[in-house]
Amino acid sequence: MRALRCYVNAMPVRSLYINFALLLKMMRIKKVLLDQRYELEEKVRRTRVVEREFLPFLNEIKRSRLVKVTTGVRRSGKSFSTYLMLKEFSFGYANFDEQILLSASPDEILSALLEIHGRGIDTIFLDEVQNLHGWELFVNKLGRSGYNVFITGSNARLLSRELATHLTGRHLQLEIYPFSFREYLKSINFNEGVETSRGMSLIKHELKNYMEKGGFPEVVVEGENPRIYLRQLYRDIVERDVIMRYNIAYKTTFRDIAFTLMNNFGRYVTYNSIKKQFGLRSDHTAKNYLSYLNESYLIFFINKLSFKPKEVERSPKKVYCIDPGMIRAVTMREDIGSIMENLVAVELLRRRSYWSRDIEVYYWKDYQQHEVDFVIKDGAEIKKLIQVTYASSRDEVERRELNSLIRASELLKCGNLLVITWDYEEEENIDNRAVKFLPLWKWLLQRE
Fold first, then answer.
1. Which of 412, 416, 389 is nearest to 400 (CA)?
2. Stretch 285-295: mean pLDDT, rounded?
3. From its phi and psi, is residue 203 left (phi > 0), alpha (psi between -120 and 50) or beta?
4. Do residues 340 and 318 make contact, with C-beta atoms less than 8 angstroms apart?
5. Which tens digits make up the pLDDT trace of 307-365?
6. Strands 268-269 vs 317-321: parallel, antiparallel or unpaired
7. Secondary structure (DSSP) of 201-239
């Protein structure tokens, strides 16, 4: 009996202790949420705003009751742009790059947001949501409760897998990229008339700057040192978004693979070649490693055009990096022709995401080694063939590149042929086929 009385007498103390611990936890959660909101508002207040090209799409969908999902590489402007769009709403904000929020339950986070903002809150903005275990259930619950939900994330697979499983047909998604060359020019207030010799010279100068610094907003708008900033961002993506998230055991090997891919942008890669070069156990491991880098938006791959799915899977892939500035910061490679090709690859994917969602981008190569850098496919139709060459005059364009373009045109029944050059513009008839030559800067200004 004495032991029982001691246990009963102790219960209020234990209950008080538990309640006090919960109270402290909620106080810490609220402080973190308040600090995050303040930091985001301060960042917007002190940063010069450059209107992004995808904002019309976001503004169009912002009042939809479907979940709005914005994905893209770290530091590409997802949070900043979403905040600007939500300023007219009463919204709660939580960024799951903060450890304490990852140890909290969704109910605790929602309770803290309600305590901070009151009953008038009608919109919830969840940043880097893929870090929160069970986030998809939380988002579903918010949607069922009538909240207008916006989420961002830096991992394509974790988001797309759960979106497909739990939010099928109930979400709208947008992938965003670092600044395009058009956005870069807007950010530096470039107003020169490009029809004049002066304007053309100045815009080519700015294109070289863009190729050197890239398009990450904190480099372009806030003046961060591109070499220092982009090297650190590269390390953060590799370490935090891949090695830590996927608990990769052979860390040094993975870092070497990431650097090798960065250093080989514009070249071919196969799972087997990676397996052999780094002594991996299987093609499957190599495939996983490459997919992790692709899902982090650091590196992406373009497949060979084929109408046979198995051949697409088996064929070598061409590797590209998300940003030219990161290429220069990490690899120090000075191959301007390859950087031009990388720029075109990223721009094609950017245009697909922002305006032309039905297109697919491939490269083409036949058994005689004729190759075309980019094939634009819309459904079953081949819409355009593109070669990229570092040429300033007609005689600098290699004949083999034109032969490959003509050969692909015949086989794929496509008459829309484009050669993107550095500084040569003309339209010619080659082997009874019209070929357009266009400088890179002029092509990058288009929005086709």
1. 389
2. 95
3. alpha
4. no
5. 888 888 899 999 999 999 999 999 978 899 999 999 999 999 999 999 988 999 999 99
6. antiparallel
7. HHHHHHHHHHHHH-S-HHHHTT---HHHHHHHHHHHIII
Count of alpha carbons within 13 angstroms of residue 33, beta-carbon side: 26
Backbone angles phi, psi at 107, to 5 degrees: -65, -35
3-state secondary structure of 144: helix
Identify whether the C-beta of residue 76 lies closer than 8 Å to the C-beta of residue 176.
yes
Q: Tell me the C-alpha to C-alpha distance, in Å, between residue 296 and each of 17, 133, 232, 236, 242.
A: 42, 18, 15, 11, 7
By three-state DSSP, how is residue 259 classified? helix
Phi-psi region of 159 (alpha: psi -120 to 50; beta: other; left: phi over 0): alpha
Query: What backbone phi and psi angles, to 5 degrees, belong to 169?
Result: 75, 0
Torsion of CA 32, 38, 41, 46, to 10 degrees: -120
pLDDT at 3 over 50: no
Tokens of 126: 């969840």
Alpha-carbon torsion (201, 206, 210, 215), positive or negative: negative
- Give percent of the chain above pLDDT 90: 73
Tokens 């988001």 -> residue: 159
Give the mean pLDDT of the chain.
91
Residues in the chain: 448
pLDDT at 60: 87
pLDDT per position as a tens digit, 189-245: 999 888 899 999 999 999 999 999 999 999 999 999 999 999 999 999 999 999 998
Q: Which of 376, 371, 424 has the alpha carbon at shortest distance from 397?
A: 424
